[in-house]
Design goal:
- There is one protein chain.
- The protein is an alpha/beta fold.
- It folds into three domains: about 1-40 and about 165-195, no CATH class; about 40-160, no CATH class; about 310-485, P-loop containing nucleotide triphosphate hydrolases (Rossmann fold), CATH 3.40.50.
- The chain has 15 helices and seven strands.
- The protein has helices at about 1-30, 40-75, 90-105, 115-160, 170-205, 210-220, 230-255, 265-305, 325-340, 370-375, 400-405, 410-420, 435-445, 455-470, 485-495; strands at about 315-320, 345-350, 385, 390-395, 425-430, 445-450, 475-480.
- A seven-stranded mixed beta sheet has the order 3-4-2-5-1-6-7, with helices on both faces.
- The model is unreliable at about 210-215, about 260-265 and about 480-495 (pLDDT under 50).
Length: about 500
């Protein structure tokens, strides 16, 4: 039965490849884009050219409107004062100097004829400079208007040519859409076959790899109260324990210091130094717990938000603004939080530094690389998180380059099939500097950016890169500093 399923899957793969090849050939021969919309390439080009033509004509009119009053003032010989029409740094400087000189010339103290004559000469020189600067601005604006006019003429010619499309364009577009519908139908059949094959393999092996079976099994009578919430309780208990421990430490040090009141000053200094180190260590522990708790509260809030956004938040890319930002720990915590109420699979695409094997029930299981290479089937690459019901797909160990994996058609088909079988597909993508952002945006279009700080320059730059790459929405979380991963992991498991 397994051989028959595999043969059917291979046949469907060949059919998908042939259908997509026919689409590409038709697209190349007819110079048409994809047929997802009912608009031909010519019509889309017409819209773009019309928009560009309107913008260029507006630019020309604006330049002419600014140049005309300047040119009229120069021809009439009237004074040119500083205004929005002649807004430039040299003009502002010259106008300020002229005002100062005129003020000095108008003062009664300027009684000597030689001094007044010198000031009038300076004012006249500044007037000449103002006229020269105004003439330069007028010529610049007139040149801008001429350039915009030439560009408008060229766009008008392109628009006229596009308005006479070949008669067969609509027929070619219809043929392309028919081929694309056929290719999509073949892909849907292949994805359904892959999902069915994965479920059958999990059932035959006696494992809980079938998400539907796990979902039914989890719908049992609750064994734990829904209130009080575990996370605040754990954090409160941890804080109380820290305060009690700090009190015992301080009491022990104070009692130890009492018999030594008559000791020498160096001994007292040593006791004070040791007491200071103990207090610093206690503060460091408290700060670490506080940071981990706040971090997990932010992840809990994001998980609640993702539960309300619908299909747009079902496939999520978790990516770091910088390396070592705690991206993997964030992806694990988010997956575990969502898994309390939904079916979740976590995929390791941090191909430069994969780390999900540290929580895998079977760290030696094949992963994405083996699937792309054809060395493992869809059902064989799914394993489980040791501490939750999250399913894992690791990066794998096969010798396949990261670029080949990210561009593989099998990866795209696998992510699409996972999206049909699970409620949430979370991708650990590593750092933005090492990832192929445009391909990740197509696989999982909702992004969670992990940065060192919310207002850090690298965080803002990475967020802009994600939006430009095509991610529909980007949520930003503060990363866990190096050394706090173990603390956060323990608190996540306690809250799960």
């Amino acid at each position: 039965m397994t051989d028959a399923r595999l043969a059917e899957i291979e046949r469907l793969r060949r059919s998908v490849a042939e259908a997509e090849a026919r689409v590409e050939r038709r697209r190349a021969n007819t110079d048409l884009t994809d047929g997802n919309s009912n608009t031909t390439l010519v019509n889309r080009q017409l819209g773009n050219v019309q928009a560009q033509l309107a913008a260029v004509r507006a630019q020309k009119a604006n330049a002419e409107a600014r140049a005309k009053p300047i040119r009229d003032a120069l021809k009439a010989g009237t004074p040119i004062e500083f205004s929005d029409l002649v807004d430039s740094e040299p003009m502002r400087r010259l106008s300020a100097q002229r005002r100062v000189l005129r003020t000095q010339l108008a003062e009664p103290a300027t009684a000597q004829e030689a001094q007044a004559k010198e000031l009038r000469a300076q004012v006249a020189d500044l007037d000449d400079q103002v006229h020269e600067e105004a003439d330069r601005l007028a010529r610049s604006l007139e040149g801008e208007a001429r350039f915009a006019g030439a560009k408008a003429n060229a766009l008008a010619a392109v628009l006229e040519r596009l308005q006479r499309p070949p008669a067969q364009a609509d027929e070619q577009d219809a043929q392309l859409r028919a081929l694309e519908r056929e290719a999509k139908a073949q892909r849907d059949l292949l994805e359904s076959a892959l999902a069915s094959h994965a479920g059958a393999n999990a059932h035959d092996a006696g494992e809980a790899a079938n998400p539907e079976m796990r979902f039914i099994a989890s719908a049992t009578v609750a064994t734990a109260p829904s209130w009080p919430r575990k996370l605040p309780t754990v954090l409160g208990a941890a804080l109380a324990t820290l305060m009690l421990s700090s009190g015992f430490v301080l009491r022990r040090e104070l009692l130890r210091a009492l018999p030594e009141r008559g000791a020498a000053a160096p001994a007292s200094a040593a006791v004070a130094s040791r007491r200071s180190r103990d207090l610093a260590a206690a503060r460091a522990i408290e700060n670490a717990r506080s940071q981990a708790g706040l971090r997990l509260e932010a992840i809990e809030g994001l998980a609640h938000e993702l539960g309300t956004v619908g299909e747009g938040g079902r496939r999520i890319t978790v990516i770091g603004a910088v390396r070592s930002a705690g991206t993997t720990m964030t992806a694990i915590a988010l997956a575990r939080s969502l898994a309390r109420q939904a079916r979740v699979v976590l995929v390791d695409l941090a191909l430069g530094a994969p780390e999900l094997s540290i929580i895998a029930g079977d760290p030696t299981a094949p992963g994405v690389a083996e699937l792309v290479r054809g060395a493992a089937s869809f059902g064989e690459i799914i394993t489980r998180d040791r501490h939750s019901c999250v399913h894992l797909i690791m990066a794998g160990r096969a010798a396949v380059e990261a670029a080949a994996i990210m561009g593989a058609q099998r990866l795209a088909i696998a992510i699409e099939a996972l999206g049909r079988s699970y409620d949430y597909v979370i991708v650990d993508a590593g750092s933005a500097a090492d990832a192929t952002l445009d391909q990740l945006a197509m696989l999982a279009p909702r992004a969670v950016l992990v940065g060192p700080e919310l207002d850090h320059p690298q965080t803002a730059e990475a967020r802009m890169q994600l939006l430009q790459a095509g991610f529909a929405e980007v949520s930003v979380l503060i990363g866990i500093p190096r050394g706090l991963e173990t603390e956060a992991a323990a608190m996540t498991q306690a809250a799960a």
